[in-house]
Each structure stands twice: as C-alpha cells, then as structure tokens.
Design brief:
4 helices; globular; HIT family, subunit A; single chain; alpha+beta
Amino acid sequence: MKSREKENCIFCAIAGGLEKAHKVFEDKYFLAFLDHRPLFPGHVLLIPRRHISTWMDVPDEWLQELAGNIRLLSEAVRAAMHAEGIFIANNNVVSQRVPHFHVHIVPRTRGDGLKGFFWPRQKYAGEAEMERVAAGIREEAAKRVR
C-alpha cells in the first residue's frame, strides 16, 4: 500500500474519528456507516478499520468475521428499511472510487428502479469459448487452494 493512499483515505479518516459518518455498526476489525450518496436510504458501507485496499488484501483470519458482519448488516438493513431483499456489492480497483476495501449493503424492493447489474451483459461466442474461460479459471483457482 502506498502511504499517500492511506494518508488521503476518507475511510481511514472516518475509522479514525477524523471525519463524521453516521455509524450503524462497529467491532474490533470493522466499521459500518451510511453511504453519503446512497442508491436508496439505508445503503450501508462496511469497511475494515485499518487501511486495506481490496478484497484480495483482506487477511484470511478476518474473513469469517467479515462474512458474519455482512449477514448481520444485511438482516439489520432489510428489517430497518422494510426491504424485500438486499444487494451486496464490492468493487476492486475498477469502479472503486475510494481505494479502501468496502462492501455495499443496499436495501431492495421490487420496482425500486435498480435494473439488475450496472453493466451490459454479454454472451460467450459459444461452448468452446466458455470451456476455455472455465479451464483458465479452474487452473488459476487450483494454484491458490490452501
């Protein structure tokens, strides 16, 4: 991580109490607060307290707590906002406006105007291309199995 990245990080400032945020949850490793430009009211951001740039940089020992916090906040947002469902998202580098790992937890209701994914869907050229792509991902995944 570049030291400038951390120095200029708004999420680090929020975690350190230097910037105001409407906090909704916190524990030893994570903090959650309302997004200041929400897709819908109740849109929450869950961040690690320490500067971590992307999902791939989250320490293994934090993953179980991270997953539990996402579930807890999904249930809390859904109940508090009387939502039918929840949209959970994370961008890594591309479309990541703040270079500090964060998870979006967004309340959803049918007919809310959010149309599926935010990007155009594409089709594979055919079965051969699908198998080539799948094989490449399997190969890379096998290298990383712990």
